[in-house]
């Protein structure tokens, strides 16, 4: 059996960006083969699938994502990442497992080994899906487009988990729409450049960008009903190069989160209307360009399948299973179940030091103070996060696999 704590330390110290997960995929494939799985590599990039057939019975897919983020680690840990690689534009970029995907890989390898070592206790088929490129929401679609459904047995259920900043040892869930749909947009604005001393001869793209940014903030507050939910975030603005040059072009990058197709359509239409309208009001000679960089649907947990998983969790982790509200983060996990026409369930593992939450500490106050996913200071405690992560995957899978 793999020393999972040592594996986690190794993965955390050697993160790989989306689409570059060669080393991690190799570790995964070797571990699966050692446990007797049939292994298929290079699915949709560096995706890896492992198949363990054990007689008649349901087929369960267990999924983990493998990629890291372009973040410089600031945890101060002895095993902190010092990796710097060239990103897709060739720019040297620090890399960190700031979202816990190293824990996801570790837990799924542990679960795969546990299920392989207990084949006398269940029947059916286990398929482990180690997915690349979740952080840019492209990996699940890439695996499906590369024939994942033709390469492995068809699932009766698709299961996955994500480490979160709650108390380690706890398991959290939500039935129905659990995570939001995500749309990444790139907006290119066109003005008319010129000298900073003669703005009357230009169409100032800086002013145009500022107007667009401010007006976009009114979509959620003034166009979306209070009972609906949406988030519009401008995460990148690039306009101009020098104090005395009025630029003729600018770029904005947006993140949009919604739960329903109706609200999504309304938000996207409002973005288009505002961008076009502000450009016209500025006297721009050329219409803006709005490009969808990627889209991922909401993560929706099947109600019946969720009840089944939660029932098994309550037996395995008494007093440590909690329902939580839906989150506005996004995942591409739901693409797998949707493509297969199978129910899916996605839950969350606590990964923060439980001592931080000991009474009389206030749960919400602690959550607001500790580092969360995507922070340069984020890292889950290794135990009991690893042990519970393995147990949660095995428990959920065994809720389907025939005894």
From TrEMBL:
This is Hippurate hydrolase. Its EC number is 3.5.1.32. GO terms for biological process: diaminopimelate biosynthetic process. Mn(2+) binds at residues 99, 101, 135, 162. Its cofactor is Mn(2+). PANTHER family: METALLOPEPTIDASE, PUTATIVE (AFU_ORTHOLOGUE AFUA_6G09600)-RELATED, PEPTIDASE M20 FAMILY MEMBER. Residues 185-279 form the Peptidase M20 dimerisation domain. Keywords: Hydrolase, Manganese, Metal-binding. It is an enzyme of class 3 (hydrolase). The Mn(2+) ion enhances activity. The keyword Metal-binding applies.
């Amino acid at each position: 059996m793999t020393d999972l704590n040592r594996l986690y330390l190794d993965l955390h110290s050697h993160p790989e960006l989306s689409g570059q997960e060669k080393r991690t995929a190799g570790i995964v494939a070797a571990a699966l083969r050692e446990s007797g799985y049939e292994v298929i590599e290079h699915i949709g990039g560096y995706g890896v699938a492992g198949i363990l057939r054990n007689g008649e019975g349901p087929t369960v897919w267990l999924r983990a994502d493998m990629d890291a983020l372009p973040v410089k680690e600031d945890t101060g840990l002895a095993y902190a990442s010092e990796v710097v690689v060239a990103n897709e534009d060739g720019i040297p970029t620090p890399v960190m497992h700031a979202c816990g995907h190293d824990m996801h890989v570790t837990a799924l390898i542990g679960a795969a080994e546990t299920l392989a070592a207990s084949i006398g206790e269940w029947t059916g088929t286990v398929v482990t899906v180690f997915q690349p490129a979740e952080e840019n929401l492209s990996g699940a679609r890439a695996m499906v487009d590369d024939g994942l459904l033709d390469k492995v047995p068809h699932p009766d259920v698709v299961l996955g988990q994500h480490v979160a900043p709650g108390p380690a040892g706890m398991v959290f869930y939500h039935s129905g729409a659990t995570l939001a749909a995500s749309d990444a947009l790139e907006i290119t604005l066109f003005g008319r450049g010129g000298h900073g001393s003669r703005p009357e001869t230009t169409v100032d793209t800086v002013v145009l960008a500022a107007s667009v940014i401010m007006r976009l903030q009114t979509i959620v507050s003034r166009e979306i009903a209070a009972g609906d939910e949406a988030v519009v975030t401008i995460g990148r603005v690039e306009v101009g190069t020098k104090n005395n040059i009025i630029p003729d072009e600018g770029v904005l990058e947006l993140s949009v989160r919604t739960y329903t197709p109706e609200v999504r359509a309304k938000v996207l239409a409002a973005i288009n209307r505002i961008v076009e309208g502000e450009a016209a009001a500025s006297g721009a000679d050329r219409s803006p360009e709005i490009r969808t960089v990627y889209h991922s649907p909401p993560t929706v947990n099947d109600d019946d399948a969720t009840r089944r998983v939660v029932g098994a969790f309550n037996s395995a982790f008494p007093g440590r299973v909690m329902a939580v509200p839906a989150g506005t983060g996004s995942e591409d996990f739901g693409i797998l179940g949707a493509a297969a026409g199978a129910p899916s369930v996605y839950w969350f593992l606590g990964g923060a030091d439980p001592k931080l939450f000991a009474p009389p500490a206030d749960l919400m106050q602690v959550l607001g103070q500790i580092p969360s996913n995507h922070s340069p200071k984020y890292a889950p405690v290794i135990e009991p996060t690893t042990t519970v992560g393995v147990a949660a995957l095995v428990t959920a899978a065994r809720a389907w696999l025939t005894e």
